[in-house]
Amino acid sequence: MPIAMITGATSGFGRAAAYRFAAAGWSLILTGRRSERLEALEQELGDKVRVLTLTLDVRDAEAVARAVEELPAEFREVTCLVNNAGLALAPKPAQEVDLADWHTMIDTNVTGLVNVTHAMLPRLIATGAGASIINIGSVAGSWPYPGGHVYGATKAFVEQFGYNLRCDLKGTGVRVTDIAPGMAETEFTLVRTKGDHAASDALYRGTTPLQAEDIAEQIFHVATLPDHININRLEVMPTRQTWSPFTIDRD
Ligand SMILES: NC(=O)C1=CN([C@@H]2O[C@H](COP(=O)(O)OP(=O)(O)OC[C@H]3O[C@@H](n4cnc5c(N)ncnc54)[C@H](OP(=O)(O)O)[C@@H]3O)[C@@H](O)[C@H]2O)C=CC1
Ligand SMILES: O=CCS(=O)(=O)O
Hints:
By secondary structure, the protein is α/β, with parallel strands linked by helices.
């Protein structure tokens, strides 16, 4: 059975993707920082499919490299890497943000994603045709909005990094896709607001956001396309989300 490695599997898209791949019988390498959640996942899915859990902070390049180096033999031939671990912080104007929050987003969404990709590239190339890297970007990487500052910029990096990877991976069979979701109801806003349940609930109230399972389905679809198809970018919004017009500062 093919193997999927999913970063940030303890919540949201990553967790839903773990269930989706498991339903199709894939073996799973599931990572995240919250080991108790990883253990729960292993208990829930381990009866059906092979599951390896790795408690891992993607920001720690050495730990990531070591974990990949030490993958047990039966988990080495990875078919799909889902670079999903990420977060937004500080939904307020750039001039009011703590520098530490910008660093955390860059360290996680950019450096962390790069750490995992660098460690996994030899494995994916060894797998060859049919292998894929699926990076979770965001609409925020293409569309600016107030309070998006560094978060959107990290997701623009994710998109361009994927395109550049594609150039270098030509001939290896390894595909690269940027899946760019719009508003989705996960723990994302709770993290972004540092635990403000009321703000998180208010954002999703009265509309129909994407659910984690919607994005998991897209991830699985991209991962299981015929070997000769590479979707470069897939932007997915809720039907009830669209763009705003330009705003004008007037006297
Ligand atoms: N929800 C949304 O509206 C959208 C989200 N996205 C992106 O989707 C991805 C998943 O987010 P979503 O599921 O919504 O949010 P969640 O907060 O529900 O899940 C985020 C996951 O990332 C993991 N994570 C965060 N930081 C680290 C770290 N340093 N090391 C390892 N794992 C980490 C968390 O695990 P743990 O805390 O256990 O480490 C968790 O499993 C992110 O990249 C996000 O930017 C993109 C577009 C829309
Ligand atoms: O990436 C998350 C979606 S949004 O909050 O930027 O619209």
